[in-house]
């Protein structure tokens, strides 16, 4: 890590002022400090945003829940209300890192974390994502990489929570300049789809304040497949949400993680389920539709059957939970 | 505190403390004045510190300890290299192995991935603080009893994780122990003993699956 | 020389590990924990090139940084670095932060040179040479016996298979490193080592200082697994930094460093052909293999870590064999001895092809082993393990398990030499009844200290806590390095001997016929003013070598996600006289867990474009965790008549083979490459290329 200054902000405006052009916001710090230890980012100042008022609150509501960006992942994992109303989010939170990580990791930090691509994360490799001119993963070791992308970088989004929140149709409240801006999850990652150097659509100085989740009724579920039993990144993750009544599903959302620079979904798949009986057959058909445009690299074709299995299983879990 | 409402009711405070309290107000040190002191502290908080070393005070195992560190110094670095508290180990320095686990207000965290400056005003418990009165904790006793260690380098971290688990959940299942300890690694492979030790410390009796059989008596 | 006591109270018991309290309280001081007065932090600058000519390294700017007290070059003058991570220079400073800044201030001028990091590419004639004056692939080692082609022609059944094993990294949790204090009167080195004496020798040689002036200490060390015998380049650098700074320097490697430069288990690529008679008797075996040990053989790697060879056809006796093995150099860190060097890859390949043969013959895998395994001990172990495991009920036709999540079972066997000799020890008995046993060995976490206390207690009729055990100091009588599972067999007889002689001497001096047990205090009191100090040494007849062992694995394989879960391991392990049951059990557990890592998770991944290790961390170099640990049913076969034999190594050998066989049994196809990841399972099932159902 390079030397830096440190300050605690008491308001979003203060945070922005303190951070200036070349500072960074510090919440849980898991990702930021790791990036700094490898000299991948070198902020002049770290601005502690954990004291911003309201940031650490889970605010239930009849129509919308507001989760402060500073709420820890452990709090989401342990929150009885979240577990009941948004089980898919709770399940995704429980799979984030380890207990030690979840105790400090925040909702905002989880959403804003950088790519885990091992070329991007390597201190001595200047890859496309870091501003170099080559995506090494394309011609190298890519078993953990994307099946879908809109640009030449094939590193996927790894935030568990982004996947669950996309399925829940959540909105992210972002402080941008003097404005507060609402972004859908899709908007939050849209730039990463198009632009190889982007991890998300946030501008410098942007601060995630909260996530708003509409209460749509129905249920949600999250599953991930990894190489190890615990504390491992997802090879593929899948979140689903929808209302299942009498075996029939409406408002289905199927979202995949770790296969694309943004939480990935296919409208055709969601639509295919509308008003259908949710069973192995309709689930399989939906999975095919989600994966129709998957483009495997040399080493990651195996993610396709995993994704298919997770889609089917999470849909059936959704049905069982309903 | 003055707040303005965003259109959904989510509140954001303006820099109200600075308006309410002057940064040079008298220091309130008595217990009754704690709340005021806290707010004052906050008021002073937007000051830019570093990058040079600065004095900080950490509450470690119930005692205030002063160190002079740069903002970039991690809590683990402060414990091990600026204080004589070497029980917490540096193994990966990247939040992946758990050997540096300490409790922050009773919750396990990776001290390698937290800045020391951020751990001020929190109750830090390290492995050295568990048997501070000379008597081993239940968890420590169980680790010895079940031989939940070999080289011992991961042991402080595991002991802290299990300690935190039992504080939050005194009667965990085996799966809850696995979940709680997933952030700790042991290269010697003492996991069977660690699982047994955690369950034993939680009051669950477990039976070892080892038998010694005389070769001479084998058919 | 009397044998081991007939009446054993503590030997073979479940007595607590004597240094466990220090380890659970954080009181245990490892090399990385010692803080001698005025100590400085040390760090190494490493090559950023897989191969390069280094023309200049400028330390001036680094030396001028605040807090920096010393900086040295790893080697003077122009040089060629041959792997990413090779040592270039080192700095010492008052804080970690100062060192980090200093490393970045060192200016290195280098010319990149062509490199090769993949074994298959390195074998090619046009591949860049790792060493300019010799081809990457060494001349193969050939072993031919009998009439192989004729025997194959006569076999009723012949199976062929390709198997591969990854480069595995030791990754002890305490990284390699030393805290060195170079003072006028000599050098004190706290070393995280498996051999305090070999560190002293290495430093003496490296620094041109008489060994008598070097004291090496290692009371607690955080694991080695074969990679920590010498002082290493890092030890020499720490010493030179200490001399320059005139202060103690603690130079522990980072996890990143650890992934590049301090040893690994060589890879293997094996083509095996095996032929048998219709009733399953092995007749012919052919192996062609290659693997890499990095840029070349490691430094002081007693135990055969130097090349990529391995024993074949492993534990089986086949009358007609043709074995051709080669090692190929690549631009990567050198191999070192790694827990049972050569054996895990040997076991994995051979045990895999044995099961393929059994399947082709329609035979039970245990049966075919009972027919071909020349070891009577191991045959008995197979029978016992099979019975405890419920093999007959669990073994089904490969792939016949219903549903997407399939269960399977498999087994494999191991052999290891072990044994050991040469240790000396001394005992000091004080008039107040206290006793100290001193031995220049080291405890890697295997329980050496505990073992000494248990033996001392039984020999003298005392309790283990009455024996003060002192190890890990070159001022104590010498012992060897702790490698090859030799420590228990080397140390135990020396402790037996020193206790026997101390007791004799005590009885002689005091005239008490039997000074043991309840007479101990009275006898000691009679010593008068001077303590009794007695020397002892390893003796013939109390230890031996050669351990077998078998393991059975039960796995679940999710054929939709490729995920493999090890449900259960049954292990039957022989190890002569069990000195400490508790620590022996833990060692077996550890061997199995490391074997699970080898089977399912661990692999050093090299990038062929940059020549870098892509996973120099625990995020993507994956170690088994608690949640990956299966139920373990362990039987220690007690053979006291054989004396003490080490078991640290054999217990990690058969795990991967047994798991691989269980996976093949579950899914009906062979995954011939370790680690068995979801990617490989799905590929074996032919699912990885499907885009739509």
List keywords for this structure.
heterotrimer, A: alpha+beta, Uridine Diphospho-n-acetylenolpyruvylglucosamine Reductase, domain 2, Uridine Diphospho-n-acetylenolpyruvylglucosamine Reductase, domain 3, 2 domains, B: 219 residues, DNA polymerase, domain 1, five-stranded mixed β-sheet, 7 helices
Notes on the structure:
The mean pLDDT of chain A is 97. Chain A is built from 13 helices and twelve strands. In chain A, the strands form three sheets. Chain A has a five-stranded antiparallel β-sheet. In chain A, strands 9-10-11-12 form a four-stranded antiparallel β-sheet. A three-stranded parallel β-sheet of chain A has the order 1-3-2, covered by helices on one side. Helices cover 34% and strands 21% of the residues of chain A. Chain A is an alpha+beta fold and 322 residues long. Chain A has two domains: 1-53, Uridine Diphospho-n-acetylenolpyruvylglucosamine Reductase, domain 2 (2-Layer Sandwich); 58-322, Uridine Diphospho-n-acetylenolpyruvylglucosamine Reductase, domain 3, CATH 3.30.465. Chain B has a five-stranded mixed β-sheet, sandwiched between helices. Chain B has a two-stranded antiparallel ribbon with strand order 1-2. In chain B, helix 4 (138-145) crosses helix 7 (191-201). Helices cover 30% and strands 16% of the residues of chain B. Chain B has helices at residues 16-20, 34-45, 75-82, 138-145, 155-168, 174-180, 191-201; strands spanning 3-5, 11-13, 54-60, 63-69, 101-104, 107-110, 123-125, 210-214. Among the domains of chain B are: 1-47, no CATH class; 138-201, [2Fe-2S]-binding domain (DNA polymerase, domain 1), CATH 1.10.150. The model of chain B is unreliable at 1-33 (pLDDT under 50). The termini of chain B are far apart. Chain C is an alpha+beta fold. Among the domains of chain C are: 20-29 and 420-537, Aldehyde Oxidoreductase, domain 4 (2-Layer Sandwich); 40-113 and 170-261, Aldehyde oxidase/xanthine dehydrogenase, molybdopterin binding domain (Aldehyde Oxidoreductase, domain 4, 2-Layer Sandwich), CATH 3.30.365.10; 381-405 and 544-693, 2-Layer Sandwich (Aldehyde Oxidoreductase, domain 4), CATH 3.30.365. Chain C is 28% helix and 23% strand. Chain C has a seven-stranded mixed β-sheet with strand order 3-5-1-12-9-10-11, with helices on both faces. In chain C, strands 7-15-14-13-8 form a five-stranded mixed β-sheet, with helices on both faces. The interface between A and C is large, with 45 and 44 residues. Strand 8 of chain B pairs parallel with strand 23 of chain C, so a sheet runs across the interface.
